[in-house]
Structures are given as structure tokens and as C-alpha cells.
Design goal:
The chain is α/β, with parallel strands linked by helices and 201 residues long. It has two domains: 101 residues, Rossmann fold (3-Layer(aba) Sandwich), CATH 3.40.50.170; 94 residues, 3-Layer(aba) Sandwich (Rossmann fold). The strands form two sheets. Strands 3-2-1-4-5-6-7 form a seven-stranded mixed sheet, sandwiched between helices. Strands 8-9 form a two-stranded antiparallel sheet. Helix 1 crosses helix 6. The radius of gyration is 16 Å and the shape is globular. It catalyses: N(1)-(5-phospho-beta-D-ribosyl)glycinamide + (6R)-10-formyltetrahydrofolate = N(2)-formyl-N(1)-(5-phospho-beta-D-ribosyl)glycinamide + (6S)-5,6,7,8-tetrahydrofolate + H(+). Pfam families: Formyl_trans_N (PF00551).
């Protein structure tokens, strides 16, 4: 399956996906293109090092979010992309984009959704004093982090854990859970029934 990845930052989840494809954990798949809205995003360099097409698109050159998304969709379609992965992509996806790739856009979020949606989720959970948080991989729809949940993994917060240590634990889970969800998608083991996602073993 041909994959397109959207990033805004360092691209550690992108690297985990690249490594999983190389190691055969994600089968019969290639990343065709990586697109970023941030010129300095290190994820673009990670893509280049892996021999993957890396493209920066400046959103300020477009009059609206939809125009910007139309450009991204154009690039994805030119590269034959069938599945889109958001990996630390910090721009809101417009309804136009969602409808072009309905149920073919995945995102990873550093909390157990529907708790702590939006930015700074790890910090929000930590400050709230929860005893458990975690990671969610979900389909992207037109809402904020509200798409159907594919996989989740919980993390218990030990007494006295620092925010930095929790972030480290969350990222470690992300780097395993995202490739696992992608592998399930590309091998046809994910079935969507309304809001519920049936994941075959």
C-alpha cells in the first residue's frame, strides 16, 4: 500500500514507521511522500535519509486552509497515496481533505481519547492527576480528535513520576502502537461499523 505521511516536527513516529517497513513489520507498503507545513521540521531530513520524497509547503502562500489542503491532496494523489498518516502534524485537516480520503487518514494522540483532546495532552493529563493515561490511534474525521478509535494502550502513572518521564513512556508506546495499527490497516484487518472499529488479530 502506498502511504503518505504529514508532519510538523522531528518525525520520531515517522522514523518508527520507516523502521517498521524496513524490518517487515508493516508488510507490502511504501512511504511515497512526506509533506510538512514547517520548513525546519527534522522529519523532512529523516525522509530524505530514507530515500523518500520530502516536500515542504508554506501554508502562508494560500488564502485559506482549504486551498492549502487542496495542494496537499494534489501532491498525495500525484504520488498514488492510498493511506495518509498524520505523525505530529499540527494543522487542522479541513472537511475537504477528510472527504477526499474518507476512512483512510490515521492519527495518533498521546492520551486515552476521548479524554484530553487537542494540544498538550500529556501535560493536561499529568496536571489533572489521572492515575492512567496512554496512547490512541484513530481515524480522522471532521471533529477534533473525535474519529473512531482503532487501538489504545494505557500507561499507569507511578507515584512521583515526572512529566519528562511520562512523555518518554508515552513516546515509547507510540512508536510501537502506530506501526501496529498501520499494519492492521494495510492487511485489511480493520473493519469500521459506525463508531466501532473491529480489529482482527
Amino acid at each position: 500500500m502506498k502511504i503518505g505521511v504529514l508532519i510538523s516536527g522531528s518525525g520520531t513516529n515517522l522514523q518508527a514507521i520507516i523502521d517498521s517497513i524496513t524490518q517487515g513489520i508493516i508488510k507490502k507498503s511504501t512511504i511515497e511522500v512526506v509533506v510538512s507545513n514547517v520548513k525546519s521540521a527534522y522529519g523532512l531530513e529523516r525522509a530524505k535519509q530514507a530515500g523518500i520524497k520530502a516536500i515542504y509547503i508554506n501554508s502562508k502562500e494560500y488564502n485559506s486552509r482549504e486551498e492549502y489542503d487542496k495542494k496537499i491532496v494534489e501532491i498525495l494523489k500525484e504520488n498514488g497515496v492510498e493511506l495518509i498518516i498524520l505523525a505530529g502534524y499540527l494543522k487542522w485537516i479541513t472537511p475537504y481533505f477528510v472527504n477526499q480520503y474518507k476512512n483512510k487518514i490515521l492519527n495518533i494522540h498521546p492520551s486515552l481519547l476521548p479524554s484530553f483532546k487537542g494540544l498538550h495532552a500529556i501535560e493536561k493529563a499529568y496536571e489533572y492527576g489521572v492515575k492512567m493515561t496512554g496512547v490512541t490511534v484513530h481515524f480522522v474525521d471532521e471533529s477534533e480528535d473525535g474519529g473512531a478509535i482503532i487501538l489504545q494502550e494505557g500507561i499507569r502513572l507511578d507515584e512521583g513520576i515526572s512529566l519528562e518521564k511520562l512523555e518518554e513512556q508515552i513516546h515509547k508506546v507510540e512508536h510501537k502502537l502506530y506501526p501496529k495499527a498501520i499494519e492492521k490497516f494495510v492487511t485489511g484487518k480493520i473493519k469500521l461499523e459506525g463508531r466501532k472499529v473491529i480489529v482482527e488479530k
